[in-house]
Amino acid sequence: MAATQGNDRPSRTRNPTHNDEYIYLVALMETLQPEDDLFSLVTAQMTATKGLKVFGEAGADAIKKELEQLIYRRVMHGVDPNGLTIAQKKAALQYLMFLKEKRSGKIKGRGCADGRKQRIYKTKEETSSPTISVEALFLSCLIDAIERRHVMVVDIPGAFMHADIDELIHVKLVGDIAELLLRVDPSYQKYVTYEKGKKVIYTELDKALYGTLQAALLFWENLVDFLVNKHGFALNPYDRCVANKDINGKQCTIGWHVDDLKISHVDNDVIEGIYNLLNENYGKESPLTVSHGKKHEYLGMTIDYSEDGKVKFTMADYINDLIDEMPADLSKGSCPTPAANHLFQVNANQQKLPPQTQELFHHLTAKLLYLCKRTRGDLQTAISFLIGDPA
Q1: Cα–Cα–Cα angle for 352, 353, 357, nearest 5°?
Q2: Considering only CA atoms, which of 248, 239, 197 is closest in space to residue 220?
Q3: What percent of the chain shows pLDDT beyond 90?
Q4: Can you say whether the dihedral through the CA atoms of 119, 240, 273, 258 is positive or negative?
Q5: CA-CA distances (angstroms) from residue 380 to 276, 293, 365, 372, 377?
Q6: What is the rounded (10 degree) CA torsion for 238, 241, 245, 247?
Q7: By CB atoms within 10 Å of each CB, which of 8, 95, 201, 215 scores lowest?
Q8: What is the pLDDT of residues 313-351, one digit of tens each?
Q9: Is the CA virtual torsion 137, 138, 142, 145 positive or negative?
């Protein structure tokens, strides 16, 4: 990625975009962990309407919890529908909600705006946000180990909602979601209207919201302003998600992927101080999640500093989860190599996979691609063939 000067917006993203039919989830996906990829988000999670039928009151409680976050973080405010033009109503982004049952049995709600309408007038340069490169992450971890630094991993909850929105955007809540918003905050009753027999509430965004195409970039700018302009860090000219500062004669390094930060310094008191600054700024509504010690879970990897002067990267849990998702006929036995000697042989007469199997294939291949670029380089030849076009 080309370096930029000062706090200019980066010219491109490190992450590829996804299929157009799922584009409204792009900004939301920027905040997910690697295991929460597109396939599981779209298939394992249900829409609010279906989820409420399946999960009942537990589903309603999960949605209300998400809506409560919008209220107390002051992400939006209601607007009189009679004051909106037909064009403004047509341009309004619909608020979407998805429900999923976690392994623990807990019902989790995830909300986002359907940002597809923004694609008409927003370019990639206006919405693309950087994330730390794999190379920068690995090199920074190596430096941590060699310099015997203390390391802390921090997650900022509701990160996007800390950033102010940069344009006029209306968001509408429809049907069941509008009903549940009224349960959370009855003051929205005065903004209720009806369209095609469904209850609708129009709002105006004050903060960045998951699903709006610029949300990840706005938070990146917010975090850079906090680190660079307010606390004297300097961005690395080769990676705009790495910042350094000399503190007590030693370098402190912060690298981040959207809202997941890795902080290191030889003095543990220094990183505790950085955490306190971050928590004071970003943890007012919900305290930051923090990991101390020699072993950290970060972006699907286990980063282990237990051996003095060394760092090890493993993805055992990620691999086990991936194997669990494999069809039974593909997960039998073991193999000495990642691919057989017929890897490059293509059957031109083979019928295409059915749509659902295609999605599973792309889902698993994407997870393997993520894996092979981090801890399983031996898979790269096989994966590069699977993601290529044999024609």
Answers
A1: 165
A2: 239
A3: 62
A4: positive
A5: 41, 32, 11, 6, 6
A6: -140
A7: 8
A8: 999 999 998 888 888 887 777 888 888 888 888 888 888
A9: positive
